[in-house]
Amino acid sequence: MNKVLLIVPTRGRPDKSVEFYEEFKKNSTITDLVFGLDDDDIEYPRIDGVLYEVNPRAMMNGTLNLIANKYADQYEYIAFLGDDHRTRTYGWDAELVNSIKDIKHGIAYGNDLLQGRNLPTAVLLKSSIVKTLGFMAPPAMKHLYLDNFWKDIGNELGSLVYRDDVIIEHMHPFAGKSESDEGYVEVNSSELYKHDQKAFQIYSETEMSEDLDRLRLN
Fold first, then answer.
1. Lesser CB count within 10 Å: N end or C end of the chain?
2. Any residues with CB less than 8 A from the CB of 144 and at least 6 apart, and which?
């Protein structure tokens, strides 16, 4: 077992899971990989050495939280990448871990070549955050604003580290690096955007302060 568990929720993209794994295998040094699948979308190739968690569909954040909670006691660090991220820097995982190993409730992220420092679209954090809060990102959010959450709590705690030299490329249609599909259309709809924006706003105004206090005390 490695130090880091990398969770990659994925739906409708079995070919992308293989592409993801090839870059992961080439550039990862201390990380175990788990793909989070929906039980109505399990026609994925099974790769030796990779974990697969199959659950009822709960959107990306629901899947992320379910798996993070299941494994938080077994790993010192939990990471999230989308199935459209690609690890380009060899030892990206060790680099991010070394950046926060001495920081209480540390949160680290690299350069996705799209948002850069602005947002941690891919993130590695100490599992103590999951164990303290009971989630990796607030459950009311379905897909969007998770990166805003990680950035905000990291800034508030003084535990956020950005590594411009660690490349985790986001192959997103918005960057012109992939074609759109049904999944992108669904999660970038105005309805989901409004839902998650409101959910994050409510969380920030009503729950974040208490959660920050819990983290400071633990």
1. N
2. 187, 192, 193, 196, 197, 200
